[in-house]
Design a protein that fits this description.
The complex is a heterotrimer of chains A (306), B (365) and C (101). Chain A has helices at 8-17, 38-45, 96-111, 140-148, 180-189, 214-218, 247-257, 265-278, 289-305; strands at 20-24, 27-33, 60-65, 77-82, 91-92, 115-125, 128-133, 153-156, 159-163, 169-170, 176-179, 199-202, 205-210, 225-234, 242-244, 280-286. Chain A is α+β, with helices and mostly antiparallel strands and 306 residues long. Chain A folds into 2 domains: 3-111, no CATH class; 115-305, no CATH class. In chain A, the strands form 3 sheets. In chain A, strands 6, 7, 8, 9, 10, 14, 15 and 16 form an 8-stranded mixed beta sheet that branches. In chain A, strands 1-2-3-4-5 form a 5-stranded mixed beta sheet. In chain A, strand 6 and strand 7 form a beta hairpin. In chain A, helix 7 (247-257) crosses helix 8 (265-278). By secondary structure, chain B is α/β, with parallel strands linked by helices. Chain B has one domain. Helices cover 61% and strands 6% of the residues of chain B. A 7-stranded mixed beta sheet of chain B has the order 3-4-5-2-1-7-6. The longest helix of chain B is centred in the N-terminal third of the chain and has 32 residues, at 61-92. Mean pLDDT of chain B is 83; it is low at 317-365. Chain C has a single domain (7-99), classed as Outer Surface Protein A, domain 3. Helices cover 37% and strands 22% of the residues of chain C. Chain C has helices at 44-55, 60-70, 78-81, 83-92; strands at residues 7-9, 16-21, 28-33, 39-42, 97-99. In chain C, the strands form 2 sheets. A 3-stranded antiparallel beta sheet of chain C has the order 2-3-4. Chain C has a two-stranded antiparallel sheet with strand order 1-5. In chain C, a hairpin with a 6-residue loop joins strand 2 and strand 3. The longest helix of chain C has 12 residues, at 44-55. The chains are: A alpha+beta (306), B alpha/beta (365), C alpha+beta (101).
Chain lengths: 306, 365, 101
């Protein structure tokens, strides 16, 4: 059963009185919230995600709740809980959904060591994965969102989860966070893009979230093998051309984008070496989404022929 | 109500005491295990216990993933401690200063089972009182830096504490505490450090030194109620339980325990440690040893208060704004720990100055 | 500065894992030190020096001679002059240790 099959009434009741238990990519999570702004946004953005069976334990128990005392009633705030710990300062109540997204990301940085985790967008074509590492500002989220509507299957906009032994990428399709200018770009790019509510005054300015394509969520159990590793940078005077990258340099850059590379020790080294070996490595400075999408399509097509 | 139930730690306690019991856990119990284990940073140890008990196949996948992930993270810290030990040898080579590793670094260097799944990467080093400034200088030359800038806090450490202000490595980012004693100068306890130095043992070919086994346990015991962050008190008790089980393999070591505690003036902390380890973690301690250790027991009213307060304080924070009983216990124990480190008049002065400075900082912000 | 006659080697207790890409004078190495947990990117000369010291102890002078022979035709020999500095860096990060005479 999927979250979207529940009525908004049921969603609200479950979130406030107990919890909603979901599968998100490889993780089983539960969510509880007393925040009115959160219920419809969560229902909309996560509608395709399967509810968890009763006999499966949850590994991340997340709560978005009012703090005790006056902040429950006046200039309302929301706290993020993982189990019984609340690691962050409160947000204003209206920002409960972005807080959830951000907090869930934090859970992954902090606690995931069963995969090699890279800060990257991942998409796939015919089982071959395109990995786009990049810090905020690299433009990878906008590019990722565009590709997801041009025939590429979205695996994740934020985390590449590599199986340590095989290098296979496990999908974690989730709402794609977009900043102000990108929202307009994506709406123009794909008329069938479902964008959730807009949140102003966040630390990153205005943000909204793209609902992950249903197809992406439905194939969350299908891994893809790494094939192309491309480091993008968004810049005004870019030439939009893919520049081949020496593998040792690609290794160095990639390891810097992996949160848990050091903690994994020799297994991390071996895993990343195998991944770099398999991938065609490039860097690219881009300023135009359409051109980039065409370039990457050509890359994929050339690959099909060989 | 049993002590275990009072502490509200049933699944975690049961998993630590008798791993095989976890096989019958319900979904809720597994989830509670994850919650409590995460709060006390013991998930890695749970994985290690399950692995040794051969029951990992019976653990549901999502739980096994989280347990193993915690173990992987903890093992990274263990390897870090081994490397930091190497760098200490590198730094002190040729200086004539000898050092002894304490706590996590010692457990890792000695290859104790306790070191596996234990997520602590800070390194604790003990040197002779007369060498401490020279040792500090050596470390500063090798990339270590002071963490605390504040002149007052630096002074506080140097005058009253058993360790220098913490150092952080400029490149490797690890934290190091340099000790000259195992209790603060202001404490009422005064174990003779020369006895500890004399009994220290070497654990590897590079000459890495750690405290003798019984002394290692006694250091842990002192750390529990005198020294540590209350948040980690339960984990400290788990360390004590593990060390006691390790010592228990050699009857000679049991026989040395109470006499050595008396020699160092540590009978009271030992009494408490044995009492709470046996009550809470079911540590197998021979009755004769417990009887002998009763020489360190406090007055009955004090003992009653501690029996009420200690188990609750060790319960990890459950639902931040609900467990008022736990909060009160924590306040009592925290003051006690601080009080034992500094006699009351100095404590009042120190705390007052700290709160005043914070107020000023807040206003300026 | 490193004494030219000091003998160095990679200690026995160290375990290194290697990966290399490229060919001839464009070879680049990535090496993982299992003991320190550090990963290092090395150019051709640096990689050859470290690999040599894994198998045999040597001084800066001996290394210079040995590596000169091992370098492919067309490789830049300037790098050989930097061997003493390289050894100093390797010592600093714990990849090599001095051997008592």
């Amino acid at each position: 059963m999927r979250l979207g099959e529940l009525s908004s009434e049921e969603v609200r009741t479950r979130l406030t009185q107990h919890e909603i238990r979901l599968r998100v990519g490889p993780f089983s999570i539960s969510v509880a919230s007393d925040q009115p702004s959160f219920w419809p946004a969560f229902h909309f953005l996560y509608q395709d995600f399967p509810l968890l069976e009763d006999d499966v334990p949850v590994e991340f128990r997340i709560g978005l709740v009012y703090p005790p005392g006056i902040r429950r009633w006046f200039r309302r705030q929301v706290l993020f809980f993982l189990d019984d710990a609340t690691p962050f300062e409160p947000f204003t109540s209206a920002l409960a959904l972005p807080f959830f997204e951000w907090g869930f990301n934090w859970c992954i940085y902090e606690h995931v060591y069963e995969f090699l985790v890279m800060h990257a967008a991942v998409l796939a074509r015919d089982g071959k994965a395109l990995i786009l590492p990049g810090p905020p500002g690299s433009g990878k989220s906008t590019l990722c969102a565009a590709l997801a509507f041009r025939g590429w299957r979205l695996l994740s906009d934020e985390f590449a989860l590599f199986d340590i032994a095989s290098g296979a990428l496990f999908p974690l399709p989730r709402p794609v966070g977009l900043k102000e200018q990108s929202i307009g770009v994506i709406r123009a790019f794909a008329s069938d893009a479902d964008v959730g509510p807009t949140f102003t005054d966040t630390r990153k300015g205005t943000v909204a979230h793209l609902r992950p394509p249903s197809r992406a969520v439905a194939s969350a159990d299908e891994p893809a093998m790494p094939h192309w590793l491309i480091f993008p940078t968004y810049s005004r005077d870019a030439d939009n051309k893919l520049e081949p990258l020496a593998k040792a340099s690609a290794f160095a850059l990639a390891s810097e984008s992996c949160f848990n590379y050091r903690a994994l020790g020799v297994d991390g080294f071996s895993a990343l070496s195998r991944i770099i070996d398999r991938c065609a490595c490039f860097e690219v400075a881009f300023n135009d989404i359409d051109t980039m999408v065409r370039t990457l399509d050509q890359l994929a097509t050339r690959s099909e022929r060989t | 109500m049993t002590t275990a139930q009072t502490m509200g730690l049933s699944p975690l306690l049961r998993a630590l005491r008798t791993p095989a019991e976890a096989i019958g856990f319900s979904v809720t119990e597994w989830e509670t295990l994850l919650r409590q284990g995460r709060a006390t940073r013991l998930l890695g140890r749970v994985w290690h216990q399950f692995s040794r008990a051969g029951i990992l196949a019976a653990v549901p996948d999502p739980v096994a993933r989280r347990l193993h992930a915690a173990f992987v993270e903890a093992d990274y810290y263990r390897r870090t401690l081994l490397w930091e030990t190497d760098r200490l040898h590198h730094a002190f080579h040729g200086t004539g200063i000898s050092f002894i590793l304490l706590k996590g670094g010692a457990y890792a260097a000695a290859g104790l089972d306790l070191a596996y799944g234990r997520p602590a990467g800070d390194i604790d080093v003990l040197v002779a009182q007369e060498s401490i400034l020279a040792a500090e200088e050596v470390l500063l030359r090798h990339g270590w830096e002071h963490v605390i800038d504040d002149g007052y806090d630096q002074q506080y450490y140097r005058r009253w504490m058993h360790e220098l202000p913490p150092l952080r490595h400029s490149v490797r980012d690890t934290e190091l505490d340099l000790h000259h004693a195992i209790v603060p100068r202001t404490s009422r306890l005064r174990p003779d450090m020369s006895l500890l130095h004399a009994a220290a043992v070497t654990v590897d070919e590079r000459g890495t030194r750690v405290l003798a086994p019984v002394d290692m346990l006694l250091h842990c015991v002192v750390h529990l109620f005198h020294d540590g962050e209350i948040r980690d008190a339960f984990r400290d008790l788990v360390d004590i339980d593990a060390l006691l089980r390790w010592l228990g393999q050699d009857p000679d070591l049991w026989r040395q325990l109470v006499p050595r505690a008396r020699q160092l003036g540590l009978e009271r902390p030992l009494f408490y440690a044995l009492r709470y380890a046996t009550k809470i973690l079911d540590t197998p301690v021979p009755a004769a040893i417990l009887r002998e250790a009763a020489v360190g027991a406090p007055q009955v009213p004090v003992q009653r208060l501690m029996d009420l307060v200690v188990p609750r304080a060790m319960a990890p924070e459950l639902n931040a704004y609900r467990r008022w009983a736990t909060r009160l216990s924590t306040v009592v124990l925290k003051s006690r720990a601080h009080w034992l480190r500094m006699a009351p008049p100095r404590l009042a002065l120190h705390l007052a100055r700290k709160s005043v400075r914070r107020l000023i900082a807040a206003k300026a912000a | 500065m490193v004494n030219k006659h000091q003998i160095w080697r990679v200690p026995d207790y160290l375990q290194l894992r290697w990966q290399s890409w490229g060919e001839a004078e464009n070879t680049e190495f990535v090496v993982f030190n299992c003991y320190s947990g550090e990963t290092h990117c090395l150019n051709l000369t640096a990689g050859l020096v470290l690999q040599y010291l894994e198998t045999e102890a040597a001084s800066a002078a001996a290394l210079s001679a040995a590596i000169r022979q091992a370098l492919p035709a067309g490789a830049n020999e300037d790098a050989l002059r930097q061997i003493p500095d390289l050894l100093h860096e390797f010592d600093e990060v714990g990849l090599i240790a001095p051997v008592a005479p």
